[in-house]
């Protein structure tokens, strides 16, 4: 019903119609999830997204439209991520499929999980500024200028942070035996 509308058209409707709000959030949820996974890891991303959805719903009436809605939304997402990182984390073990998988699938899944865990560990080892710039670029495929707007920094700063993050991740992975 609302999917054909652009964000700038949908935001005023979303302030008074929950279906418009849901359409707006559905549009951005996959990218918000990617940012949250990149910053807090997959195991904490769902909790962060719940906070983002609640915060966005409460504060949509305050969105002035000075920036693009997506810029505002990603800033809220990153703030929720950093708030989650400051909280002590409980150990969470994800539930696996109950059907016994084939041996090939187990080996493949184990390799994928190991690589994902290494990448998450590598991302967590980055300074926050590098991690957020890298996440916005790599997980959301944002343009450098848009990242600069989201982060409130100069374009050159974004480029530098992303370059440093890539180099640090490459070094991190090489030290753990991952070959390009």
Automatic annotation (TrEMBL):
Keywords: Sigma factor, Transcription, Transcription regulation. Coiled coil: none annotated. CDD domains: Sigma70_r4. One of its GO terms (biological process) is DNA-templated transcription initiation. The keyword Translocase does not apply. GO terms for molecular function: DNA binding; sigma factor activity. Pfam families: Sigma70_r2, Sigma70_r4_2. Residues 117-169 form the RNA polymerase sigma factor 70 region 4 type domain. It comes from the Bacteria. Residues 24-87 form the RNA polymerase sigma-70 region domain. Belongs to the sigma-70 factor family. ECF subfamily. PANTHER family: RNA POLYMERASE ECF-TYPE SIGMA FACTO, RNA POLYMERASE SIGMA FACTOR. This is RNA polymerase sigma factor.
């Amino acid at each position: 019903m609302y999917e054909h509308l652009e964000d700038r058209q949908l935001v005023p409707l979303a302030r008074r119609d929950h279906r418009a709000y849901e359409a707006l959030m559905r549009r951005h949820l996959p990218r918000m999830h990617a940012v949250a996974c990149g910053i807090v890891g997959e195991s904490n991303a769902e909790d962060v997204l719940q906070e983002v959805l609640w915060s966005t719903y409460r504060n949509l009436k305050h969105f002035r439209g000075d920036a693009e809605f997506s810029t505002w939304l990603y800033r809220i997402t990153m703030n929720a991520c950093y708030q989650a990182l400051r909280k002590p984390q409980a150990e969470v073990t994800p539930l696996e499929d109950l059907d016994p998988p084939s041996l090939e699938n187990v080996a493949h899944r184990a390799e994928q999980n190991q690589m994902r865990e290494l990448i998450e560990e590598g991302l967590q080892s980055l300074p926050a500024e590098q991690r957020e710039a890298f996440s916005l670029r790599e997980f959301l495929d944002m343009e450098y200028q848009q990242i600069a707007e989201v982060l409130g920094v100069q374009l050159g700063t974004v480029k530098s942070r992303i370059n440093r993050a890539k180099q640090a991740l490459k070094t991190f992975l090489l030290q753990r035996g991952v070959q390009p």
